[in-house]
Amino acid sequence: MGVIQRQGLKHTIVSYFGVLIGLFSTIFIYPRVPELYGLFRVIIDATMLIVSFFSLGLSTHAVKFFPKFKNLKTGHHGFLGFLLIGSSIGFIIFLVCLPLIRFLFLDILLSKSESIKLLTEYFYYLVPMVFLFIFNAIFYKYVSNFNRVVVPNIFEIFIKITVPFLALLFLGNYINTQFFVLGVILNYVIVFIGFLIYTKSLGQLFFHLNLKFIKPPLRKEIQKFSLFGLLNALGGQLAFKIDTLMVAAMIDITSTGIYAIALVITEVISKPAKGIIAISSPIISSSWESNDLEHIKLIYQKSSTVLLVVGWLVFLGIWGSIHDLIEIMPNSEMIKTGVNVILFLGLAKIVDLATSLNTDIIGFSKKYQFNFYALLILSVLNIVFNLYFIPIYGLVGTAIATFCSLTLFNVVKLIFIWFNFKIQPFTLATVKTLLLAGLCWSMIYFVPFNFHPFVNIMLRSILLTIVFGSLTLYFEISPDINGVVKSGLKKLKKITRNK
């Protein structure tokens, strides 16, 4: 776990800096403009749903097939050129299908929304967003092959800084909704340019195409994987992004903003996973190439433990102070409708973290087709659960639907991996983590704080971190976490001595 640990730690540090910015915006800025933020989320999630289809699954190819093309002297046999040309074809197909997409979104999915006029006005802004998302995703995955995920994460932080800044300009009546959306598009243009410059600085920017290298057996494998890669991406977005669109369709754009705020708060829980998965994916792909199942098992179990420990710590920190947190937010009475949304979305994140790398393990194996079938089941379940729960529970129903569908989705993948590869992510450390989480959850309710909300949040966070952190280290639940802490203490001692 050496490379994974180092890059994962750096990624986590940078990510949580972004998280702080995101939380500040979510707590103090976005609640002031729920409709504007709802529009932003609908544009982003609709873009991601469209991209999942028209990217032709090529962002997955960027990791899956890189070991076969890897050769710096030949510019990796034109691998990046292959990805970029394929992405360009996907974007052209999207432009051809744009009238159909408009009909599906505006005349079917969102036709009954109370905010249909606003959504119609900004539909065509999806065109530049789709272009930028397709190519940014390619570069993000491509540079991850060189164990580089920190700088791409800085690009994400840039978005997290500029979007709330645009919202503040809107609040101050310096810009209108149109300029807000144009500003968002400009941000992604800057990120695209940043990816080009960064890839060039790594010495990995090669635009040529070497079709001769793609011989019939490899071409056949790529074509076969392309179909399932595309379907996997589409299924993933239907499963994980359709909830926001269904809130917009079945309720209104303001409720979408409240739901999106809850999503941002709970996404803090899964932040460490993004770094570990980004670093682990190329290693798992290479391990499958050498059929090193023991190495995959090791990464699987260690990742699960680390993510579960960190996930529970963050979730309990959020849930323990949720009422104080909402109390300090603007429009707190409106935001209170999303309290239980945060509970169910948070638990869904915990389930996903516990099963860690199961999607990647299946996706880079010879049985990668199963991911599509699992995602198809998840997509159907999520849509059905949303249609059932939203009319009964409103906004909270969407979160319940996500929790139920995501739990079933991960159980199905766990069973599949066990029966086919005889590996699973759980160890004794998993049980220890759950017991520790249960203890700390009880502590949150039995140790009351009746001060100012800011003070309550601070005191609970300090107490939880001390209890949860010290017991995690004492019982050595995760050797990797203990190793990182010991390494950090040694460095701190050296710095102190030098002073």
Oligomer status: single chain
Output the number of helix runs: 24
Shape: globular
Radius of gyration: 23 Å
Taken as a percent bin, the fraction of beta residues is under 5%
Distance between the termini: 32 Å
* Helix-strand sequence: HHHHHHHHHHHHHHHHHHHHHHHH
**Residues in helix, %:** over 70%
Q: How confident is the prediction overall: mean pLDDT?
A: 84
- Total beta strand runs: 0
For the sheet with most strands, the description reads: none
Provide the structure class: mainly alpha
Unreliable stretches (pLDDT < 50, length at least 5) are: none
Account of the 3D structure:
The structure is a single chain. This protein is an all-alpha fold. The protein is built from 24 helices and no strands. The chain is globular and about 70 Å long. It starts with a helix and ends with a helix. The mean pLDDT is 84.
Outline the fold blueprint.
Blueprint: H1 2-28, H2 34-54, H3 58-64, H4 66-69, H5 75-96, H6 98-109, H7 116-121, H8 126-144, H9 150-171, H10 177-201, H11 216-240, H12 242-250, H13 253-267, H14 271-289, H15 293-320, H16 322-327, H17 332-335, H18 339-354, H19 358-363, H20 369-393, H21 395-421, H22 428-446, H23 453-474, H24 479-498
Helix pairs in contact: 1-9, 1-14, 2-8, 2-11, 2-12, 2-13, 3-5, 3-8, 5-8, 8-10, 9-10, 11-20, 12-13, 12-20, 12-21, 13-18, 14-15, 15-18, 15-22, 15-23, 18-21, 20-21, 22-23
